[in-house]
Every structure is written in C-alpha cells, then in structure tokens.
Amino acid sequence: MKVSTAIITAAGRTQRKLPLQTLTDREGQSRTVLRLFIDELRDAGIEKIGVIIRPGDHDVYEEAAGDLSETLTFIEQTEPLGYGHAVHCGRDFTAGEAFLLMVSDHLFVSDDPEKNCAQQLVEVAEARECAISTVQATHESKLPYFGTVAGKLFEGRPGLYEIEKVLEKPTPTVAEQELMVPGLKLGHYLCFFGMHVLTPGIMDLLGQGVATASEQNPLQLSPAIAELASRERSLALELKGRRYDLERQFGLLMGQFAVALDGKHRDELLEGIIELLAQARR
Length: 282
Prior knowledge:
globular; single chain
C-alpha cells in the first residue's frame, strides 16, 4: 500500500483561522501553520494534498500557502455538517486510494530526530498495509476533547495496538469501564493524536451517513473508524512525538514554544523565558 495523498481538514468554524496564523519555525523563519503542515506532509512523501475549507476562504489559504499554493487542491465544505462530512468532501480527491488525514487545529512535534510525525505514520501504514490512527496516552481530564481508543498490542509490538473500540469524547466513567488499555498509567487513555492513514472503505462508511447529517446531528469520524475496525484490520500507533491543540487557551503560544524549543534557537528562547519569569515574579 502506497500513501501519497493527504487531506487537511480546515473548514471548522473555530478552526478555520488557525492554519493562517504565523509562527517562527525551527530555523527561526516565519511561516504560517499551513506551511508547516505542507512541509511535514511533503517530507513524508505525500505528493497530493487536498485542503477542506469553508466557502470564501480560498484566497486567504492560497496566500498562506505561498509559493506552494499551486501544489494544493482546495475543496469546499459547503455545509457545516460535521468532521466526518468534511472528510467525505474529499472522496473524489482521494480517488479510491488510501490517504493520510490531518486535522488543522493541532501542531505536531516529533521526538524522533530522523522522522517527523507524518513520516513515522506513513512508514508503519505502508509496512502493515492497513488503516492506522495515531494516538497519544492522554490524562482523563482531557477526554472531552478527543476520540478515544481501546485495543490490544498488535504482534506484541509496544506502541502498536489492534483497535477494538472507539468512542468520541467519552466521560472518565465510561472510559474506565470500556477503554482501559493495559500498560498505561492510571487515569490515562489512548486518545487520537490528529493524524490517520485511512483506507477507501472509510469513505463508503461516511457516505452512508451523509444523507442524514445536519448541524444538529453532525456526521462524526470516530464511529466510522470504529465500524471500519470491525470490517478490516485497523491499528492505533503511539508516535514518538507530541500534539499541541492550537484551539485551546494559549494553544498557539504553547505550540510556538514547542516548535522553537525543538529548533536551533532553543537556548536563546530559554534565556528569554527565564528573564520573562523573573520579571513576572517582581
């Protein structure tokens, strides 16, 4: 299985402006969050990138992509019918192929010096030839923000699980009853990281729900991933990396710190933070 196509979902009402924000990258250069996403995907061998946007956002996204805008395909989600619906808008673009899905309200920082997060995911997906959702051990206090997975170790490999159940934003009580995974710290669960490699079957499953989707009853992705896992092998992968939710309070600031601390100006930034903290204590 070759993964050479990707979709970035960026049409959410509260998320649509996040990829347009400018951060300082690891090299000290100013780039939009969208450019950071594009570079991550291109380094992972992705050749075709589709961006799901709201109507009217084409020009600002084209400007945010800069000289790489011509390499993108912009796809409008004409109605706000949910995250699953946004993904399904890319059905024609993916053309019956496996594809990498990336959310636009998270920033990804790899802890592997050789491979970014998308590279790690694509490598495992192509080797296992199946759908793979990235996950991160997450404290139960953050369950309201993420889809959560239960599973068992796949082939005994640490960090790779065969998906048995998926629930969207469960309560801690439900998670304790249904989503416990042996080996995780107490009160921690496997929550979605923000990247998936999905097989064409996911589009068929989402298509079944499009007709009944509405703003009051949005089409979600997690139930479709759960159904896909019941039909074909689907895995969850703990990456060597961290995700930063840009939509949360101070999310952009924390994402900026994370990217900068991972770069060549780390010492300079640390000095500035220490000076700032010293001034704040006065």
